[in-house]
Design a protein that fits this description.
The structure is a single chain. The protein has helices spanning 2-23, 25-28, 37-53, 64-71, 82-99, 106-119, 125-141, 147-150, 176-186. Residues 153-161 have low confidence and may be disordered. By secondary structure, it is mostly helical. It is flat and about 60 Å long. The protein has one domain (2-186).
Length: 187
């Protein structure tokens, strides 16, 4: 009997999470991004696998709706690869929650991921995963505090003055603005 109650509770929770993910379509459809019920179910399964692979347990609401809202207006995500991109971002998120030893809040990690995804990686998931986030997590483990953590802001403009990753980059770079413009021109 206890197994039946647990299964009913689990089924109810999964249904609620599926509904929350599908409710995101109301916001994302204006960006041309919509998940079908089947894609949402696959993402829920991908979440389960990502949690297992990263040896994490998640209580309460999953991270997927936050990922959807954080990335839905990125110019590098389109309908054709939307569900796959969300699955990858979800896996990357859980991996780097571990790698940063939970020193960052979910919002801090998502904010960093989105900024790097658009401004440094130009939509390249592998570069986000293996370069930007790997270096950032190494720095966090060494005691680095993100701007959001330390609340460093430009007191005159009241906004961030540069991309936080620039201080962690190991590549010799030429003029960043020229490079950025060239990459944007390609897309």
């Amino acid at each position: 009997m206890d197994d039946n109650i647990y299964e009913i509770m689990l089924a109810t929770r999964q249904k609620q999470e599926l509904e929350r993910v599908l409710e995101c379509n109301q916001k994302t459809e204006k960006f041309g991004l919509v998940l079908s019920q089947e894609e949402a179910k696959q993402l829920m399964e991908a979440r389960k696998n990502a949690l297992i692979n990263n040896q994490r347990v998640e209580f309460g609401e999953g991270i997927l709706p936050k990922i959807i809202y954080a990335f839905c207006d990125s110019q590098f995500i389109n309908q054709d690869g939307y569900a796959q991109a969300l699955a990858e971002l979800q896996d990357i998120f859980y991996t780097y929650k571990n790698e940063t030893q939970d020193e960052l809040t979910d919002d801090e990690l998502l904010d960093f991921m989105r900024k790097q995804f658009d401004e440094i990686c130009f939509g390249d998931m592998e570069y986000l995963r293996s370069t930007c986030l790997e270096r950032f997590s190494r720095a966090v483990r060494a005691g680095y505090q993100s701007r959001m953590q330390s609340r460093l802001r430009d007191e005159y403009a009241l906004k961030e003055t540069e991309n936080e990753y620039s201080g962690l980059s190991e590549e010799t770079r030429w003029d960043y603005e020229v490079y950025k413009q060239r990459l944007e021109d390609m897309y």
